[in-house]
Amino acid sequence: MDYEARGSGLDFVENLVTLLVDVASIQRRAEATGAEAHFWLPQKKKLLRNAIGLLLLAEQSIQLRTLYQMIVAAPKHPDEIKSLEWQRDNLLFELLERAYANGRDNPEWELIHNYWTIERPALASKTRETIDADFTGMFDPLTRGKIGELFGSGTNLSPDDILAGNRRFVSNCLV
After folding, report:
1. Whose C-alpha in 76, 102, 136, 164 is 20 to 30 A from the C-alpha of 114?
2. Separation of alpha carbons 64 and 80, rounded Å
3. Rg for the chain (alpha carbons), in Å?
4. Is-contact 25 86, C-beta < 8 A?
């Protein structure tokens, strides 16, 4: 999942969000219904979209463990963002700084920055905690064991290679 996109670097984010949600939902074996479909799933997708976008603007690789660390490091209250204590050695703050330096002219920057610094911290704590718990619960199995190694390590295969027919993808997974 270290593939670097061309252009704005954010062109494939929505496809990656959908792919990750689909992969994680395989274990559930059911489609989202009711409140899950209408509120919680879109909120998890929004979280993923903004996390992946931030990683891309910060020119960092996309790994599930990093996504988890971003959620844990995110401010829980709007005032926390201004706190030097929160900013010190904080992964999310560091990513925001890198993304600003690299991509402040990108049209996605303002949306991503506002999500992490205004919108998300202002969510009711129980709402934010539910989104986070659902996200971490959904992706936890994909960060451990052999599957975790697959989702958390580099690759020498890119989508361009596949589309150009330069490489063949062979899966040898036991289910």
Report:
1. 136
2. 25
3. 17
4. no
Tokens coding 75: 């401010």
Long-range CB contacts (within 8 A, 24+) of 106-114: 106/8, 106/9, 106/10, 106/57, 107/8, 108/8, 108/10, 108/53, 108/57, 109/57, 111/50, 111/53, 112/50, 112/53, 112/54, 112/57
The backbone region for 144, taken as left when phi is positive above 0, alpha when psi lies in -120 to 50, beta otherwise, is: beta
Map out the domains of the chain as residue ranges: 13-164
Look-up: residue for tokens 């490489």? 167
Which value, to the nearest 10 degrees, does the dihedral of the CA atoms of residues 46, 51, 52, 54 take?
Answer: 120
Give the tokens for residue 39: 């509120």
* CA atoms of 42 and 65, how far apart (whole Å): 21
CA distance 55 to 89: 17
Mean pLDDT by 10 residues, the chain (175 residues): 47 71 58 64 89 92 88 93 94 97 94 96 94 84 73 57 53 39
The residue among 63, 118, 128 whose CA lies nearest residue 96 is 118
